[in-house]
Specification:
223 residues; mainly alpha; two-stranded parallel ribbon
Amino acid sequence: MAIVKFAPVSRWSKLRAPVAVIAVSGFLGAAIVAPFAMPSAPADAETLAFQERIHQEFIPATTAEADLVYTEVGVVELPDPEEVRKKQEAKRAAEAEKAAKEAAEAAEEAAGAGGAPSSGDAPGAPPKYTGGGSPAEWMAAAGIPESDWGYVDYIATRESTWNPNATNASSGACGLIQALPCSKVPGNGYDPVDNLRWASGYAADRYGGWAQAYAFWTANHWW
């Protein structure tokens, strides 16, 4: 009977198959995990836009018209367009009448006290902001925690595009966070730090903080 001899199997031959399996598995694992480990491009773009916005140095507009805001912040759209239009017109008329009355009263008080005319665009209006700085500097000076800056940016961007001199064309609401009337802001409604300090108090008193104010704004498109 013939005796068949088998060639000895080397240690490397014994290990080569398992190593190959592990290598293939590792490659497939990397192929599966890698896409989930990649950063989100839209999120990065949004973060970069936010950083650019809050660090942008303010440059005053050269004309009063450039500071006018025509969007009606705070108007909630209703199902009936005609009803919405009528309510908007009534709201604009009431706000304009109220603002005009308050401006006239302020002008009369200033005249009675022998005060100098205001440098604002309307009689009795506070002077426009001509200083520099950036939203980040204004928020820090107003005492707003950096953890809330994103919430403030969301609201301020939609109400004034971070223009301290933003003025509603119909109601006269003013400043970064549109105050109506402008005189309700302690100090100067057009001063960004004064305006943000007032807005912080408003956010805390009415909603419990900026995060809650942001949540209300996103749900209702006003606050």
